[in-house]
Structure formats: C-alpha cells, structure tokens
C-alpha cells in the first residue's frame, strides 16, 4: 500500500480553516444529532440501571411455586382439597425436572408485621424468619458482610444457627457490638448468629429483605413443629429455557406428584421473576429503539444540512474544481475530495457531539454518585458497542450526505468550471 | 504532434446552434511556438480548449501524437492533461487559499508523487521562475506578474509536451508581458510546444508561427513575421 499522503488531510483541514463559521454551522446538525443519541440512549440506560438496581435482589431466572387447593375433582378426590408440599416432593421434583437447575424449599415464620417474635436481652423486634437450605443465596443473592451463610452441616445436624439481615442487627445489637456467636431468641428458641448479610439493590424490597432471619430448614421444622412441610419452592430455571414453558412444566410435574387434575389451573400457585424480567426487558428494548430512532432522525436532519452546505460550497468552488481538473485531477480524485470533505466534516461534527454527550453523561453520573438525588436514575452510561454502532450509522449517513455533492461536482465539465466566476 | 482535421464545434443556443469552429485543419509539430490571433468571438479560446482536452468537439478528428482524442473518457482525458498538457490563463487561475508553493505542487499531487518530492520540485520550479522567495505567499499577496510566474511554474512542473496559454499577458503591463514571453520562449527552447492565444501583435510577433482565426475558420497561417505586420506604433495585426 502506498504511504498516506499528508496533503490529503491538509486539503481537508484547509476547507475548515477557510470558512470555519460555515464548517461550524453545517456541522451543528450532525453534532447535535449525535449528542442527542448519546444523551437519550444514555439516559434510557440510566433509568434501566435504576430499575435494575431496585430489582437487584431478584435473580432474573428465578421462579416461586406453592401448593394451593384443587379446583377440580380427580381420582376420587373432591375439589377444594388442600395440597401440601414436603421435602420428599422437593427431592422428587429435582430428580424429574428437565427445566430447573435448583429447587430450594422454603418456609416462613412471622411474615405478618407487628407481633414481636425475636428477642435478645432487652432488645426485641418483629422479623421474617425463613427456613431455607444452603443453596438459598443462589435464588436470592445478598452480600454476607460478616461470618457465613448456612452450610450443609447446619442442615444435617439441625443446628440452631441463624444468619441475620443488617436491619435485624441494628435492632437487636448495640452499635459496635459484634453479633457473631451471640444468641438470639426466636419464638422462645435460642439461635446462634453465624452470619450477617446486606441485601443487594436498593428500594423498598431491599429494606424488607434486610429484616429477615435465615435458619436451616431442618431446624425450622423441628423447632417450630412444621416437620418437613414446605411452604414454597424457590427455583432456578435452566439457562436458555423459556420462563413460561418452565413454569408450566414444573406445575404439571407437581400436579402429577400431588395427584391433582392435570388441567387444574389453581392447584399450584406460581410467580416467575423471569417473566417479569422479560417484560421489563422488552420495555427497555423499546425505549432504546425509540431513542435511537429519534437520534437517527436528528442525525438525518444534520446530514441533510451537510449535503446542503456541500452543494453550496461546490457551487462557490466550481472554478477551483475546474482548475484542479485542468491540472490533471481525474474524476476519481474529485470524488475522493468531495466525499472526503463531507466525511471529514460529518465525522468531526459527530465526534464533537459524541464527546460532549459522553462528557455530559459522565458529569451526570458523577453528580449522582456524589449523592445527588436522581430518583430511579442510576449510572447513566453508554456502552462501546452502542457508540460503535452509532459511528457506523454516522459513517453511512456521511457517505449519503456526500453522494449528491459529488455527483454535482462531477457533472460540471472542466471547461464550464474554468469559465465560471469565483 | 497535434493534428486537427475538420474540427467542428457549436454551442447550443436558444432556438438552435451557434457554430463556433467551422472546420479547423491544423497541424502543430512538437517544439513549435504558435500564436493564435483573431478578433473577439472568433473562436480562439474554444479552439485552445479543444486542444487542451477541456472541451469536446462535434465533428472532425484530433490526434495527439497519433492517438485519437475524440473518444477519450473523462478519466483518460484527465491523464493526458496531467502528463502532456500545461495551462496558463489570463486570470492566472491560482487556487486562492493555497500558497504559491502548494499551487505549483498541485499537479504532482494528482500524479501521486510523494509530498517531499513535490515540494522539492515545486521549489526548484519557483526558483527557475525567479520567485522562490515568494513560495509561501498566497496568490493575493503577489503582483500580477508574480502570479503568472507561479501559474507558469505550475504548468511546467510536470514537464508537459505542450503549454496552452489563453491570453497569458492579457492582464499584465507591457514590461511584465515581455518577461512572461521571455519565460515562454525559454520554455519553448527546451522542446516544449507553446501555443498562445493573444490579441497583441507584439506577443504574436515573438512567436514563430501565427494562426489567424475569423468566424471559426483559419484565415491565415504562417510565419509570424508575415502574418503580423508592423505599424507606425510598433507592431499591430493587419485587419
Ligand atoms: N459556453 C458557451 N455557450 C455558448 N456560446 C459560447 C460559449 N462559449 C463561447 N461561446 C461563444 O462562442 C464564440 C467563440 O467564443 P470564444 O471564447 O472561443 O472566443 P474568443 O475568440 O476566445 O474571444 P475573446 O477574444 O473575446 O476571448 C463566441 O461567440 C461566444 O459567445
Ligand atoms: Mg478567449
């Protein structure tokens, strides 16, 4: 390949230096368009991040299921029979499912706010107490800030240990007191604190979450006389499995296991985080699309502006183009020049818009990080892939903007160009 | 060698055609120095533009060194302009935002010659024209004579076979005109064909051969001393 000729660049710079005001005005549209794209996409992203943070506690592929009453008679059973799940059902489900990666049994105490059920010395509070197994954090991730979560040993030995939320710690313990190893009383039963956790995410859900206590499922059954009864299942859907399909298949399995009518719509309750996420996802997808669309329209307007300016510029420089052709410029070199100028202007303008846009987003981000109130708006950002896509669109539009002026420039015969004024 | 045979050209006009060249037969050998004279509107510039491949013609044939020029694509024409032809204009036609040096180097840019060499050769050419000290001036900072020297340097930088000059002294005073003619004579002495369109008898007189056009036809063609006759004031064309 021939080395790059610096004069090609110098020629382009001369265009701008010669008429900086015009270059600026003509670039304004494209710069603005790109700026708009970055800002709108970035803000949409910020909103998305905000909402995501609120949902941060939840795992996208998780689902919850519980047994209710039958709504159809089946195999000699009356309708209205109350169904129950137990640990054996959990084991059976884990064995037979094609759609799930993990099934966690769960049972809860309290739950209805108000009645104080947990005490420690003079401290007392009302908290949700959950019996779960060691896999629970996989369906409901949180940060263990001290100690550890429940382990298989706790479950096998039915140890009276618990992991408490950060709110529980502040209520039951004095400032500076280390809860690890301390005993708390849950409905009269003593449990040793082995860990403290902080919920992921923010918002109301997370605050509720911080007021929970987790104890081994097995201990729960023994301490509170629930045996191996399971109140509900928290499950993880396998990757790449459709959430609705997994939900239906799991319900079918449970109906079979519990001897309920296969078409009983009410016997098994379920709630799928995955479906929720998919809905939110599609809303954000639409939002991104709309912001891109508006940005593209703004860009298009800018590009039309550049085409216009280039056409004027070519009219004014007809003589110059004629001179260049008398000096041996081939049509190809003229094309290179005009397209080059258009691309140069467009991309320069685009980059200015891009840098300003990203700069503003960063500024906004910094402001929010510093504790500025932004509601559900968090970490507005734009990823490299979007930026690259936008740049490709910009390039395409720049080429588009250059076509008309180039054809125009070529259509003028050298002799006519030379004879023109200017 | 330039060879025109029965060249005809007319311009489209409202309601018809305006014939401008009405059968031009002309052979110019390599190394000749030719003046084209004739009254205003007689078709001198049109003829020069046809010779310079800047304009097309309607009928007849044009051979440049035995190559037929009538069916050239614009790209091929550009190649010939780049390699064989150099232009000098009455109004200089320098690019206003480029320095003298950049203007002179421009034809080499289109020949894809590396920048360093372009600069070197352009400077040498300005040197030869005696205006190297103005290399970095813009055209607007130069006198008419200096501008025409820059323009001639630009026309010569590619060492063309033919220089085509349309009234190169038309905008200059007589002293400067003479200097320009000195340069063109010197250029011609290196074997380059020089064709000059002019109104001025003393310019034509400094050429070897003079062609006179009238109404799109060649009415006289011969030794300048025969075609151009001296008058009481010096030299003026016979009418
Ligand atoms: N583009 C054009 N369209 C129409 N008519 C034209 C065009 N160019 C030139 N003409 C006409 O053709 C004729 C010859 O023009 P040309 O420029 O060749 O004359 P010229 O001999 O160079 O005259 P001058 O000495 O004034 O420069 C003139 O009548 C002119 O009006
Ligand atoms: Mg003329």
Question: What descriptive keywords fit this protein?
Answer:
heterodimer; A: 422 residues; alpha+beta; 2 domains; twelve-stranded mixed beta sheet; two-stranded antiparallel sheet; 14 helices; B: alpha/beta; six-stranded mixed beta sheet; four-stranded antiparallel beta sheet; 34% helix; binds adenosine-5'-triphosphate; binds magnesium ion
Q: What radius of gyration of chain B results from the CA coordinates? A: 18 Å
Task: Please identify the oligomeric state.
Answer: heterodimer
> Helix fraction of chain B?
25-40%
- Please write the string of helix (H) and strand (E) elements of chain A: HHEEHEEEEHEHEHEEHEHEEHEHHHHH
Task: Indicate the overall shape of chain B.
Answer: globular
Report the count of strand segments of chain B.
12
Major sheet strand order of chain B: 6-7-8-3-9-10
Biggest sheet statistics of chain A: 12 strands, mixed
Shape of chain A: elongated
Radius of gyration of chain A: 33 Å
Number of domains of chain A: 2
**Main beta sheet of chain B:** 6 strands, mixed
How many distinct beta strands of chain A?
A: 14
Global mean pLDDT of chain A: 84
Could you tell me the strand content of chain A as a percent range?
A: 15-25%
Order of helices and strands of chain B: EEEHEEHEHHHEHEHEEHEE
Structural class of chain A: alpha+beta
Helix content of chain A: 40-55%
Largest interface here, residues on each chain? A-B, 24 and 29 residues
The helix-and-strand class of chain B reads: alpha/beta
Uncertain regions of chain B: pLDDT < 50 for 5+ in a row?
Answer: 231-236
């Amino acid at each position: 390949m021939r080395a790059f000729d610096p004069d090609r660049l110098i020629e382009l710079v001369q265009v701008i230096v010669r008429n900086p005001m015009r270059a600026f005005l003509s670039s304004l549209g494209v710069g603005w368009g790109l700026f708009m794209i970055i800002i709108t996409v970035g803000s949409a992203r910020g909103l998305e991040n905000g909402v995501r943070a609120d949902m941060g506690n939840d795992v996208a592929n998780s689902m919850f299921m519980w047994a209710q009453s039958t709504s159809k008679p089946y195999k000699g059973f009356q309708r209205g029979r109350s169904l129950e799940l137990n640990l054996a059902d959990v084991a059976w489900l884990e064995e037979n499912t094609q759609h799930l990666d993990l099934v966690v049994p769960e049972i809860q105490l309290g739950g209805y706010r108000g009645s104080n059920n947990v005490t420690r010395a003079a401290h007392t509070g009302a908290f949700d107490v959950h019996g779960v197994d060691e896999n629970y954090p996989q369906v409901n991730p949180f940060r263990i800030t001290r100690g550890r979560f429940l382990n298989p040993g706790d479950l096998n030995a039915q140890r009276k240990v618990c992991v408490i939320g950060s709110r529980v710690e502040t209520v039951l313990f004095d400032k500076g007191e280390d809860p690890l190893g301390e005993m708390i009383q849950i409905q009269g039963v003593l449990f040793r604190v082995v860990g403290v956790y902080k919920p992921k995410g923010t918002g109301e859900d997370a605050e509720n979450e911080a007021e929970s206590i987790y104890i081994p499922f097995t201990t729960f059954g023994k301490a509170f006389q629930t045996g191996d009864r399971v109140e509900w299942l928290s499950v993880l859907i396998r990757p790449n499995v459709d959430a609705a399909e997994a939900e239906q298949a799991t319900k079918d399995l449970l109906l079979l296991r519990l001897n309920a009518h296969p078409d009983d719509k009410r016997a098994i309750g379920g709630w799928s985080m995955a479906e929720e996420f998919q809905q939110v996802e599609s809303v954000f997808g639409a939002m991104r699309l709309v912001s891109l669309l508006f940005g593209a329209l703004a860009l298009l307007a800018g590009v039309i502006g550049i085409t216009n300016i280039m056409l004027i510029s070519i009219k004014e420089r007809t003589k110059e183009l004629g001179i260049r052709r008398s000096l041996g410029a081939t049509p190809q070199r003229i094309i290179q020049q005009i397209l080059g100028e258009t691309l140069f202007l467009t991309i320069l303008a685009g980059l200015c818009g891009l840098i300003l846009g990203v700069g503003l987003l960063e500024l906004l981000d910094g402001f929010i990080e510093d504790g500025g109130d932004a509601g559900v708006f968090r970490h507005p950002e734009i990823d490299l892939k979007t930026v690259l896509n936008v740049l490709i669109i910009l390039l395409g539009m720049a080429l588009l903007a250059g076509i008309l002026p180039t054809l125009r420039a070529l259509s003028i015969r050298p002799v006519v160009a030379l004879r023109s004024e200017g | 060698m330039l060879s025109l045979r029965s060249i005809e050209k007319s311009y489209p006009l409202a309601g018809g055609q305006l014939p401008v060249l009405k059968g031009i037969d002309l052979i110019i050998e390599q190394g000749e120095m030719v003046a084209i004279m004739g009254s205003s509107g007689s078709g001198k510039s049109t003829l020069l533009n046809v010779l310079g491949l800047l304009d097309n013609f309607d009928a007849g044939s044009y051979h440049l060194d035995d190559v037929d020029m009538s069916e050239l694509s614009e790209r091929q024409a550009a190649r010939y302009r780049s390699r064989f032809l150099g232009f000098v204009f009455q109004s200089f036609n320098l690019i206003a935002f480029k320095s003298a040096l950049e203007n002179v180097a421009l034809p080499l840019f289109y020949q894809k010659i590396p920048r360093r060499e372009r600069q070197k050769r352009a400077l040498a050419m300005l040197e030869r024209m005696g205006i190297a000290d103005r290399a970095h001036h813009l055209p607007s900072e130069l006198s008419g004579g200096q501008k025409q020297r820059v323009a001639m340097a630009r026309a010569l930088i590619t060492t063309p076979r033919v220089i085509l000059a349309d009234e190169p002294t038309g905008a200059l005073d007589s002293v400067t005109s003479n200097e320009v003619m000195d340069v063109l004579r010197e250029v011609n002495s290196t074997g380059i064909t020089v064709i000059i369109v002019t109104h001025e008898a003393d310019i034509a007189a400094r050429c070897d051969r003079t062609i006179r056009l009238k109404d799109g036809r060649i009415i006289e063609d011969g030794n300048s001393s025969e075609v151009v006759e001296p008058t009481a004031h010096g030299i003026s064309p016979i009418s």
